[in-house]
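[audit] Reproducing an earlier prediction to check determinism. Same input, same settings, fresh worker. If the tokens differ from the archived copy the diff job will pick it up downstream; this log only records the rerun itself.
[audit] input (137 residues):
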Amino acid sequence: MDVREKRHWVLTDVSLAVKGCDLQPEEITSFLGIEPTGVRNPGPSRWARPGDVDGLWGISCNERVSRDFHEQMDTILSVVENKRTELVQLTGRGYEVAVEIYGFAGNDCTLALRPEELERIALLGFPLRVAANMNER
């Protein structure tokens, strides 16, 4: 992470997300043997984008665990690597599996993935989604 001045910062949240129109969070928890940090049953939600009615099961690593982006990435990628076989089976059952990065960013800040992080993501074969909120907090 390149923070040029103290007022320029990125607050990140890295997660593993499993989504599906018929997703039942308790079934995913049982199948993976991991407790999620967040779930959403299928149907409309005030927290989801308009039209997004998929159920969601996820594990998130954010500032409550570590403020270091690379530690967050390592935590989530380790979970995905350890459960890759099961996650591939979920994609075969029609679920969407992705690694997601979400961040609140100040002006003129940057957030760079390390080459080894990109390699780990590529080897897993799941999509990487990045979303930034440029509103300062």
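[audit] rerun output stored. Observation attached for the diff report: The CA atoms of residues 7 and 106 lie 7 Å apart.
[audit] end
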